[in-house]
Design a protein that fits this description.
The chain is mostly helical. It has eleven helices and three strands; from the N terminus they run H-H-H-H-H-H-H-H-H-E-E-E-H-H. Helix 3 packs across helix 4 and helix 3 crosses helix 5. The longest helix is centred in the first third of the chain and has 31 residues.
């Protein structure tokens, strides 16, 4: 019997207990008091901004847009600022404050812009928001928008020729630095009642005709300094 007790005692010592196998509790990282204070202050700012936005939004619904605008002007409020708060409420009223409190208020104002509408829908699925993460995603949206936007092509096809953003090309004439020539062109334009484009067209056709019909070279007219 003693042998059985001894064996049982020895066996008990050899087998690890459940407590020994249990994972050790994780010690929470110490909370940074400064970071916690900043976060709490930002939460208050966001909460207050949303409440102001809701108040203005309800008042606008009751009064109508026209009367609300008149009331804002009468109270000498900043209409643009009030519109920002209303937009903030309309955008984030359905979001949890515990989620958006991690983001700076100015960043939330920026997220109200139409170009971030698709991003906001994706952010609903993001488990945790941080200022750095949101700024990174906003930067990606701006880069994508910039890449999709057609860049105007202004490379020269030849002397004076420029490509147009919508296709085609246009001839861009250089600036005329000769004062006498500018005065002369302006006089002819007024006398003939033509636009500058029409005048250039008429002058070009005239010189071409002179060469073809009368054999007058353009070079012979190059140094003309007469006045009308």
């Amino acid at each position: 019997m003693h042998s059985n007790l001894l064996n049982a005692s020895t066996s008990a010592k050899r087998e690890p207990s459940i407590a020994q196998n249990a994972p050790k509790p994780q010690i929470a990282a110490p909370v940074d008091p400064v970071a916690a204070k900043i976060r709490q202050r930002n939460r208050w700012r966001i909460e207050e901004a949303l409440e102001d936005g809701e108040d203005f939004w309800r008042q606008k619904q009751q009064m109508g847009a026209k009367k609300f605008k008149q009331w804002v002007e009468k109270e000498e409020f900043n209409h643009a600022a009030i519109s920002k708060f209303i937009k903030l409420y309309e955008t984030f009223a359905s979001f949890s404050l515990d989620r958006i409190e991690w983001v700076d208020l100015n960043t939330l104002f920026s997220l109200c812009q139409p170009r971030y509408r698709e991003l906001l829908e994706k952010l609903r699925l993001l488990p945790k928001w941080t200022e750095a993460k949101i700024q990174e995603l906003m930067k990606q949206v701006r880069s994508q928008k910039k890449a999709k936007k057609p860049q105007p092509q202004t490379e020269e096809l030849g002397t004076g020729w420029k490509r147009l953003p919508g296709g085609g090309r246009a001839l861009q004439l250089p600036l005329l630095h000769e004062d006498w020539l500018g005065v002369l062109i302006e006089k002819v334009r007024k006398i003939k009642n033509l636009t500058l484009t029409q005048l250039i067209k008429e002058m070009t056709l005239f010189f071409v005709e002179c060469e073809q019909v009368y054999g007058i070279s353009l070079r012979s007219l190059k140094d003309y300094r007469g006045e009308i």
